[in-house]
Design goal:
The chain is mainly beta and about 240 residues long. The chain has 1 helix and 19 strands. It has one helix spanning about 20-35; strands spanning about 1-5, 40-45, 50-55, 65-70, 75, 80-85, 95-100, 105-110, 115-120, 125-130, 135-140, 145-150, 155-160, 175-180, 190, 200-205, 210-215, 225-230, 235. The strands form 5 sheets. It has a 5-stranded mixed beta sheet with strand order 3-4-5-6-14, with no helix packed on it.
Length: about 240
């Protein structure tokens, strides 16, 4: 992996002439934002030989998770502009990722029926959530971090609850890590509806008639939205 900085020319505000007031104001706001951030770090995959399928940014913006089409996840330290860790997967592609609100845990779903939780400080696997019968396509933490929603191609949405507090170390600069996921029988604990591993299924939401693709919590955690290939969005 490598990184470089690209500079962008200042926006041309003259192009706003002739637009309606509403559109002019919108473009002016976009131009102001671009002017205030005219330099961008570009992370290059180099000869890694795969593409980027998804990204997630930790609260505070320091740590960026990059999900690759080879099943691996790169943790990039945006402040230090260097790779923090490589979480090595055993699948072909990462579908989606989500950081917990405290930025210490990363939930990853990929071309498998499991959801893997990682400690982003140590790169160690925390838990493997098992319960879906088809690929999991989306993950989302609630604002408190105690619930995790997952959407699956088995047409269901599950809400997982953390059954006990799991203290974790604060994030620091760290060294590069190479972490391997563990199978459900190894040191990474496997969570199912029975509640092993500190997480258990609290709700299984049914109603979608085709693959559930995406989930999102309301900012106050009072509701959950899910979308599916059946053309519906359901509010729970």
């Amino acid at each position: 992996f490598s990184s470089h900085v690209e500079a962008f020319p200042p926006p041309q505000l003259q192009s706003l002439r002739g637009r309606t007031h509403k559109h002019a104001r919108t473009h002016a706001m976009a131009a102001a934002a671009a002017a205030s951030s005219s330099r961008l770090h570009v992370v290059s995959l180099g000869n890694h030989g795969c593409g980027v399928h998804c990204v997630a940014m930790a609260p505070g913006g320091r740590l960026v998770a990059v999900g690759l089409t080879d099943g691996n996840v790169v943790l990039w330290d945006a402040a230090a502009n260097q790779r923090r860790a490589m979480l090595k997967g055993r699948v072909t592609s990462v579908f989606a990722m989500a950081f917990s609100p405290d930025g210490r845990t990363l939930a990853v779903c990929a071309t498998e029926i499991l959801v893997r939780l990682w400690d982003v400080t140590s790169g160690a696997p925390l838990a493997v959530l098992a319960g879906h019968s088809h690929w999991v396509r989306s993950v989302a933490f609630c604002p408190s971090g105690d619930w995790l929603a997952t959407a699956s191609c088995d047409n269901t949405v599950r809400v997982w609850v953390r059954s006990a507090a799991q203290p974790q170390p604060a994030i620091d600069s760290g060294d590069f890590l190479e972490a391997e996921p563990s199978s459900s029988s190894s040191s990474a604990q496997s969570s199912s509806s029975s509640g092993a591993g500190g997480w258990q299924t609290m709700l299984t939401l049914e109603g979608h008639t085709r693959f559930a693709r995406c989930v999102a919590f309301a900012p106050d955690g009072s509701a959950l939205a899910s979308g599916a290939e059946d053309g519906t969005v359901r509010l729970w």
